[in-house]
Structures are given as structure tokens and as C-alpha cells.
Amino acid sequence: MSVHYKELGLENTREMFKKAMAGKYAIPAYNFNNMEQLQAIIQACAETGSPVILQVSSGARKYANQTLLRYMAQGAVQFARELGGKFPIAVHLDHGDTFELCKDCIDMGFSSVMIDASHHSFDENIALTKKVVDYAHQFDVTVEAELGVLAGIEDEVVAEESTYTRPEEVIEFVERTGCDSLAISIGTSHGAFKFTPEQCTQDENGKMVPPPLKFDVLEEIEKKLPGFPIVLHGSSSVPRDLVDLINVNGGVLKKAIGIPEEQLRKAATSAVCKINIDSDGRLAMTAAVRKVFNDSPEAFDPRKYLGPAREALKELYKHKINNVLGSANQY
Ligand code: G3H
Ligand code: 13P
Ligand code: ZN
Predict the structure, then answer these.
(1) What is the CATH number of the domain that holds 59?
(2) Which of 58, 98, 113, 171 has a CA positioned 20 to 30 A from the CA of residue 157?
(3) Is residue 259 domain-resident?
(4) 329 within some domain
């Protein structure tokens, strides 16, 4: 059964990005796979008044069931309004790898899709992206494309090495595809292990400081595409306190290192209009669940551990909105 996203109360990302560009902030793009994550996102956005992009990967669709997810997204809008939140909500396919997957999501009510053909050749990337754009725009669905390759796992797409986006390619790419936003590679990567300790220096407190993002590449891209929305994937910061909490409660997450929040704050004031965060949420939930299991080994009601996990997630999301993305009360 096909449904258009407007019938679900969703919005595409066009207006959101226009305002984010003018207001020098970035929209949070938070991934969800289950009810507690979705509740935490909506509650955080209702409490801060932040617009939001709810991201669904193809792995999430397989995990949660695509039909259930579509109704959860619809329910999320109603839940937000019940909480008194009037903020705009987009539902976005994260790292779509085929035309068929993108079409399926559009037909099921997604308001935005990403076609990630960044691992293909330049011309193949353009051809596949354009095919998705031509279909999506018939329904006023916005399309994110990617140029340059991020290291790490991108759902079905795995890359060992990152390749920075080449500024000299972006104008041709955007003109020929008609995409609405562009994900670029400037040193972020997916997952909780973005850098090896050998790539980092240590500050006076012994904290690992990774190499800075390539702001020179971002600036060059901004010059070539003035006013065009840029997207940063792989933007979890891997907070030390969460990793420590996991490790003291039986976890083994050694050497997890992310992107420092100050760098993401700086990026959010540029043409970067959307910042993707998934791994930090996973860490927040895992830390909370591990702590409950360690402190209360007798607990077996899932609400006893998923409730605290949801609360920790909500606080993390609010922190990102208030202190990193700058998207509070922006709609
Ligand atoms: O970039 C990937 C996202 O974090 C989604 O991850 O494919 O494991 O759902 P996933
Ligand atoms: P992280 O793994 O850094 O959270 O990135 C998530 C992401 O880019 C989703 O598309
Ligand atoms: Zn990503």
C-alpha cells in the first residue's frame, strides 16, 4: 500500500536545510531501530524544540520490519504533537544502495532518501543518483547523495580507507544529478573506532586528540556550491564517560575514539546542515543497560533496563541539540 509522506504529517528536508543554513546550525539526523530509540528522539526534540530527521538504514528495515517502521514513523509525529512539539519531522532512508530500495521507501511514505553510490565510479554515481532524484522529485521527496568515501561500515557498503571529497567534482555532480544535499568526506567515519591511538596526540589530561577534520576541503566545497546543504556522516564523538561506563560494567570497548564535539560545533555553523549520529546513541544505551545489569542482577523486566537506556539516550540527544548542533527552538 503506497502512502505519501505528507499524509503522515512528515516534511521533506528542503525547508529545514534552508533555515539551518541561514541560522548557522545543523539538523540532528538520529538513527532508530526500535521503540525506545524513537521515543527518546521525539522526547528530546519536544523538550528542546528541535527539528529532526529520523533515519532508517536498510539494516533497521530488516531488523524492525518495514511496515512496522512506517507506522512507527507515523506514530512518532502524533506522539510529538501530543507532547506539544510543533517541530518538523522528516523520515529519511540512510545509505540507500539501490534505486529499488529508495523507490520502496518513497512509496512507503519516507520524505527523504539517501542514495549512497559513493563507492561507484563518478559517472556511475551520477547515473544512479540521477535515477533516484528523477523518481523522488515526482513526489517532492528530497535526495541526499554522497561524493567521496568514508572509512568504516556503511550498512551494506564497507570501506577500509576513506577518500576525501574532491572539491573540483562537486559542481558537476550536483548539476548533473539534481540532488538536494551532498554528504562529503572530510575525515569523519562510521562506528566507535574512528581513529587508532597512533593517529592521535595526547593532551595534558591524557585525552586522545584525533587529527582535525579537513575544514579546508569543506571551505572549498562551500565556495563552489554557495548555499548548498552539506551533510556529515560518521559524526559520533564517542564520549569517554560512556566508554568508561561500559568498560567498568563488564564491556570491552578499548580504544574507541570519535570526532571531538568542538569540531562538529564548528561544522554546524558552516554549510553543514545535517549531522548524522548513531554510534553515540548505541553507546549511551549500552552503558545504561550494562549498569542496570551490574547494579541489579535480579532485574529481568525489560522496562527496568530499557527505561534507563531510553532516559540516557534522551539526555544525550538533548546535549547534542543544545551544545553541538545548535538546533534548539529552530523552526
Ligand atoms: O551509517 C550507518 C548507520 O549507523 C546505520 O547503521 O546499518 O548498522 O543500521 P546500521
Ligand atoms: P556514527 O557511526 O559516527 O554515529 O555515524 C552515523 C551515520 O553516519 C549514519 O549514517
Ligand atoms: Zn552514514
Answers:
(1) 3.20.20.70
(2) 171
(3) yes
(4) no
CA of 267 to the centre of ligand 2 (A): 15
94 catalytic per annotation: yes
State whether the beta carbon of 152 lies less than 6 angstroms from ligand 2: no
Structural domain contains residue 330: no
- Ligand 2 contact via 92 beta carbon (within 6 Å): no
Which residue segment(s) compose the domain that 54 sits in?
A: 5-324
Q: CA angle, 327 as apex, 322 and 57 as ends, to 5°?
A: 100
- Integer Cα distance of 169 and 165 in angstroms: 8
For the CA of 152, the closest atom of ligand 2 is: 2
The end-to-end CA distance of the chain, in Å, is 31
For the chain, give the mean pLDDT.
95
Element (H, E) at 91: strand 89-96
Cell numbers that stand for 20 in this block: 539551518
- Going by pLDDT thresholds of 50, 70 and 90, the confidence category of residue 155 is very low
| Number of structural domains the chain divides into | 1
> Quick one: cell of 32?
532508530
Place of cell 533496563: 305
Q: What predicted TM-score, i.e. pTM, was given to this entire model?
A: 0.96
CA of 204 to the centre of ligand 1 (A): 34
In a domain, 209, yes or no: yes
